[in-house]
Predict the structure.
Amino acid sequence: MAEQSPTGGEGRVRPQVSGTFDGQGAERLTRVKQRIREAGEQARDEVVALSHAVHADPEIAFEETRTAAKLITVLERHGFSVEAGVANLDTAFVASYGTGPFVVGICAEMDALPGVGHACGHNIIAASGVLAGISLAAVADELDLTVKVFGTPAEEYGGGKVLMLNQGVFDGVHAAMMLHPGEEENADHVTRAVVDLEIEYTGKPAHSAEAPHQGVNAGDAATVAQVAIGLLRQHLQPGELVHGIVRSAGDAPNVVPHRARLAYDARADTLAELEGPGGAKERLLRCFEAGALATGCTLEVHDDWPAFSEFRNDDPMVAAYRANAESLGRAFTDAPMSRRRRLAGSTDMANVSLRIPAIHPTILVEAGGATCHEPEFERYCALPAADTAMWEGGLSLAWTAADMAADPAQRERLARTAEELASRD
């Protein structure tokens, strides 16, 4: 039934790509989408409750134990088999349904932000991913596909998807998707590359009054670095950003601070621009070196987590998602690209998109003018409008996967593209 051809030089074979709808036309796909919707409607109350439960019990990066358990419980109840603790991450999991050769991966982010809980709406992301998986599972056999829901930790800090990607957890996936709540409705996604840096200065403590001359002030090193960063900002390239916090810079005013810790991000439009010669990362590091040089402190830079890349949208999936969401009454913003690039954030889903055809639409959550990462936005993420966005977005993802799986040409294209991207590693 299907083409089987070697790829790369590693003995991989392309999966069967011919769909079950050859020559069947639009009517059959319409019936399949109706069954997907019915499955989603049957699960709606359960998944809304899941969203609210995750929202009420926020857990930060790599600590999403209760959140992961909540998601796994619902998925297992709907027949998914679950592998927990993947990629040596306690809270990461893969839930699978079906045995078809075409594999769709849906990402469910789980972590919250320190201090402001689910102000980025990851409860909506997690619940919409579960909803999409459950809805799509209802037609997995007919569409000859395998559905995988990935429980992905530490998007806000740590890059859980990149860690999972590098450990092979996403191997064999032909189309990856998720959605994100926000202040606008966009079918495609624009991001910046970002790197997280942890900075530590070490000096020498001394009594601030009796012997300040004997101290080496790590707090001053942090101050010098921040002044240098403030001056640097005027000269960054368009699209480059630096921002951060001081985690600690002393414990008492009458003791010369001998340790200071800072956390900073550097961003640029692409990973190559971010990490290349003269890029924002290199220039930021020079500011920290200036703090050490000026004060005599030692400097340690911890670059422990993987950088996030720019996002590569799969245009046919973007178009399918938009059409599906519009059929539910969603209205897209269509803001100028210049504005969207100026406001772009970052995500570890971008790294997935460079290895697997992917989409990451943004779905509007009315929040009274509040934006992501603001405390007020967190409150809106468990209100009825957010529940509607979660359900309509999850259903649109499932319908988009059905569009791809039902079309032999799209199955072939996505399988081929996934092979080509994987072979570049």
In short: The radius of gyration is 24 Å. The CA atoms of residues 78 and 200 lie 48 Å apart. DSSP finds 14 helices and 14 strands in the chain. The chain has a mean pLDDT of 93.
